Amino acid sequence: MMENIHLAAEDEDDLYTGYNDFNPTFDSEDLDNDVGFQQAVRTSHGRRPPMTAKFPGTAIGGRPIGTSFGSRMPMGSSMGRPATGAVQDAGAARPMTAVRAAGYSSSLARGSTFDPLGQSKGPAPPLEAKNEDTPEEKIKILEKKVNDLIEESCMAQANGDLQLALEKAKEAGRKERALVRQREQTGTADHITLDLTYSVLFNLANQYANNDMNTEALNTYQVIVKNKMFNNAGRLKVNMANIYFKQKNYPKAIKFYRMALDQISNAHTEMRIKIMQNIGVAFIRMGQYSDAITSLEHIMSESPNIKTGFNLILCYYAIGDREKMKKSFQKLICVPLGIDEEDKYIPANDDPHTNLVIEAIKNDQLHQMERERKALAEKYIMTSAKLIAPAIETSFAAGFDWCVDMVKSSQYVELANDLEINKAITYLRQKDFNQAVETLKMFEKKDSRVKSAAATNLSFLYFLEKDFDQADRYADLAMNADRYNPAALINKGNTVFVKQDYEKAAEFYKEALRNDSSCTEALYNLGLTHKRLGRLEEALDSFIKLHAILRNSAQVMYQLASLYEMLEDPHQAIEWLMQLISVTPTDPWVLAKLGELYDSEGDKSQAFQYYYESFRYFPSNISVIEWLGAYYIDTQFCEKAIQYFERATLIQPNQVVWQLMVASCYRRSGNYQKALETYKDIHRKFPDNAECLRFLVRLCTDMGLKEVQEYATKLKKVEKMKEIREQRVKSGRENSARGRREGSASSDSGQSSHGASAKGERLSVTLRSLPGSNEPYEASSQGEIDASYVDPLGPQIERPKTAAKKRTDEDEFEDEELGDDLLPE
């Protein structure tokens, strides 16, 4: 590196010699003392030709030249160029900037410092402010405002505020029109930005369409399309066609789709395919399946996709072409999805770096999109198979078998087992339980996932048939195949529940919840189990959690109301029932329950309102009819009570109590003749009824009729027979009591006798409201009439979540619903 450096010898001159020498002609410092210059100023001496023969110097040639080195004379260049870098004497100023080096000199100027950048002069003066009053500046500001408004409109639309987006779009349109007028006034109309105008109109039309202002959107699109200055504006006819499609104006939508198709070159294949797909869907909506098939077949030959293949199958199904359905199904399962195999996300080795990468991409957005696309394809294939299976062969079983064979030879091999399970479910819908069971039993030797799903279905079927042993067996089989299957655990819990082992059932429901915290069936059944165990607070907690998941579930709301009633909090119970009737306003049992709660609270008017609404929706509820009849008697409107008791007579014609109540109402209202006819009619139907004969005797006596003796004789015979029966019943009870003491009676007979006595007690309480034989007609207190009749079909027992059947004592727990948890998740 040192070999490239040249060192100056000691006897050589200074390397910078000559830089301080300059032509004295450029020296202006001593012009006042220059005699030649002064003489030239005063006379014409300065107009003489220059002396070129002399060595450069002053005009008279005799003045010495001073340099920074003292008396050394300057040296001229070989080309006659004056020497640079020299000054008159030490510290003298340089004469010319053009010939001075860039701030480097052998001596500084007088009174100055080294400042090549001129920083000593202070900061630069401020920039001159723009004059915004000029027309050009106003136009630029207005253009910026328009662009900002368009951007704000688009952002508002992205945030879901469609109304604000439309307002911003309209304001941008007003500003853009003002901009055009301003350019025309300033004479710069040639500089109008067409792109800005296009953006404003397009955004405005889009916002109109988003706000369902279809007419305004079409008008705005029409303005753009008709303007020949806009390039590629014809593509917007697709948007216009979409609006017509939304308005169900399918012929016009097809017309505009085709116009847009004509204006799009063949280079834009994807856009043309999408427009043709829209044309096919419009034809399907119009019922023109042949025209739709033409478009869809072209798409499947050029660029096949899942949706188009599914629509093509629907068209062939609509026209009943079996062979075409088969071919279209084969095309559908051959459509490439364009996604990676799942093996890519399985670590192939123990390389930590590779494993980290796989873990990172396992759940990224691309993989999620792939899963969604695959799930959509499987959904369309399954739906297509279920649709065409009964149509392509003589029986749906043969059709399913053909679909299964086709799927097994495609990329969707795993769907074959699901199709088999759907075949079994189809058998269930056709009420062919034996075939369904046979189909599901074929999966007992398959892999664990399919085996668990089939066993779950079998357990469900046997449970519905009340074959609890088989249901328990297959529930165990499903659990052994897949312990993490919540449906299998729920079915196992249900089989334990019916055996009244509630503690064990609760454990299975809790395990199902640990495996799937969103399993609503397990949470519902767990709440019912806690309710059976008397753990009302825990049951309440379960149903409140379930209500947070199923906000509009009528069953959950009813259970909450029932629990609050059991906790003796009628106000909360009423609150939940009010929420329940907002979901199911026509449920007569809920309305009746509300009436019962208000009645227990002493609010008769509200109770009457809900009981009456319940009667309107279900006029055959005996408890509601009885309460309404008693209410009208209590309020001295016996005539209105008659219609309710007559309806009760129609519902229970063998119950004499309702006919006696009708006669009693006639008697209370003063219509004795009608009451007498009613009692006679009751006596013909029930000749052994002592109450009826007693009233007949009294009425005939008061009315002076001859039949009084006849009815009195009959009454004595009936009372005598009644005494004999009572003695027999008394002796029978004594014998049964003696037998119980001896251990000869069974518990079942005791329970039945208890039920019979309870029923007799309820009826006797109702009959006590009638006056006795020696009482006046109005002596019986109306307040004694029984208004708390307990209907065995009422809403006192829990409702199952299945809405298709009424409540029964056996349905207090939640079964696995067909079609929800039967299939593997």
UniProtKB/TrEMBL annotation:
Keywords: Cell projection, Cilium, Cilium biogenesis/degradation, Cytoplasm, Cytoskeleton, Flagellum, Repeat, TPR repeat. It comes from the Eukaryota. The keyword Repeat applies. SMART domains: TPR. One of its GO terms (cellular component) is centriole. It is found in: Cell projection, Cilium, Flagellum; Cytoplasm, Cytoskeleton, Cilium basal body; Cytoplasm, Cytoskeleton, Microtubule organizing center, Centrosome, Centriole. Residues 41-64, 110-134, 724-825 are annotated as: Disordered. Positively regulates primary cilium biogenesis. Also involved in autophagy since it is required for trafficking of ATG16L and the expansion of the autophagic compartment. This is Intraflagellar transport protein 88 homolog. It comes from Astyanax mexicanus (Blind cave fish).
